[in-house]
Every structure is written in C-alpha cells, then in structure tokens.
Amino acid sequence: MREIATELRGLRGALIPILHAVQEELGYVDQLDVPVIADVLNFSVAEVHGVVTFYRDFRREPAGRTTLRICQAEACRSVGAEELAAHAKRRTGVGFGETTYDGKLTVDEVFCLGNCALGPAVQVGEKLHGRVTPARLDALLGEVR
Ligand code: FES
Fold first, then answer.
1. Which Gene3D superfamilies match (predicted)?
2. Each residue's pLDDT tens digit, 2-53
3. Which residues have any ligand 1 atom within 6 Å of their CB?
4. Ligand 1 atom index nearest CA of 76
5. What's domain 66-142's superfamily in CATH?
6. How much distance in Å is there from the Cα of 80 to the middle of ligand 1?
7. What is the pLDDT of residue 106?
8. pLDDT tens, position by position, 70-109
9. Distance between Cα 65 and ligand 1 center (Å)
10. Contact 73, 112 (CB under 8 A)
11. How far apart are CA 55 and CA 58, in angstroms?
12. pTM here?
C-alpha cells in the first residue's frame, strides 16, 4: 500500500485516488493501511480515517463474493425500490453496506445505474437487471453462489 500511495501522492487531491487504488487492489481499505497512507501524504491518521469513513464508496472490510446493488435514486424509488430494498433485507438478513455471514453476498445501495426507464433496477455482480420485483429478486439471489 505504501508503494501505491507513494506512486500517486503527486496527484492533486491525491488521497481519494490513493484510496480508490488501494480498494481496487485489496477490495477494501484496511484499517492498518490508514497510518501508512497518512505517513506518505504527511496527513494525520484522523484525516485519512475521516475520509475513509465519510465516503460510502470506501469499504472497510472485504466484500462478499457477489455484490447486490439496489438503485435508490428517485426514478427507481417511484416504482418500488424502497420496498425492494426492504424485501432484500428480509431475504438476506443484511442491510446496505453489509455482508451475509457466509461471505457470499454484500448488499449495497447505489444512486442510479443508468437504467431509470426500467426501474426498479439492480445489479448482481456485473449484470444489470430492470423491472425487478421481489419475486424476481428472489430468483436472482437464488443464483448467487
Ligand atoms: S434511478 Fe435507478 S437506474 Fe436510474
């Protein structure tokens, strides 16, 4: 992580690109890397920690093998995205930003998947799905390994 941070520290506003690069490498930003990044940028640990915890984009623990992202932006909310999220929570036992106990699935909210005309929209892994009903979501979750 020191190598990544050192390589990118010359960028303007380097902290965010460094955190994205770290997350891309590891899948999350490990708490143990925060002091390393702070050292490279000559920031306080509290400053880096504050950014990691402020932005929801940064995960602080490894994600599940598959990520379910449920759009919660306006167009999808107007056609049932909130109810779909509540159904997902009942079905999986986890809320946004959480991972199932078996490490199979992480559930996240997202604000627009570019599929607004076909809401509610969800993404399972890399695949986008539109007009997702609770029953369809159950079927999609049944395919998750
Ligand atoms: S608002 Fe949900 S995909 Fe755009």
1. Glutaredoxin, NADH-quinone oxidoreductase subunit E
2. 999 999 999 999 999 999 999 999 889 999 999 999 999 999 999 999 999 9
3. 71, 73, 75-76, 112-116, 119, 121
4. 2
5. Glutaredoxin (3.40.30.10)
6. 11
7. 94
8. 999 999 999 999 999 999 999 999 999 899 999 999 999 9
9. 24
10. yes
11. 6
12. 0.78
